[in-house]
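S1.2 Input.
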Amino acid sequence: MVQLGRNAHGECLEAGRVPDCYLGLLLEAADDGRGAAVLVVAPAALLDPSVRQPDGTVLYELLTGHPDGAPGQLVFLADLTVELRAWPTDTWAKVGVDPQTAAGAVIAWHRGHIRGLRLDGLTAEEALAVERPAMTYMRAQLADRLDRSIAQACRSSRSERR
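S1.3 Output.
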């Protein structure tokens, strides 16, 4: 990615290096009292024309191209904010990207057009962690808990296709 170049560790992003990771986006509390939820989508959702570009592309490249990315990893926007700090242009404003607008477009687009997995039951603290970069430990715990739900949903989906 030319826009970011090398980070403080001398690493470059390679978009698509880890295409099978997931992006977790915080959904507002449900009207039925279920509390906060996370929408889990594939990174390619960021490349849809309904998502403002280059915002979606920058998020996609950081999500799928980070050297520390792992297959099956659940990543939140706050995680990408933390990762961005390793680059010389260390804030979204300096890069010229609005991640919240891109996330909002993916959420709006999801409602009728893409497959995603809604995971309900976030505590108030977990919902805060999804949005706040400083809450890394809580976000990691949430990702571990949600990984089990994602794996179960993937297994169910595969067995339904048979």
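S1.4 Remarks. The chain has one domain: 22-161.
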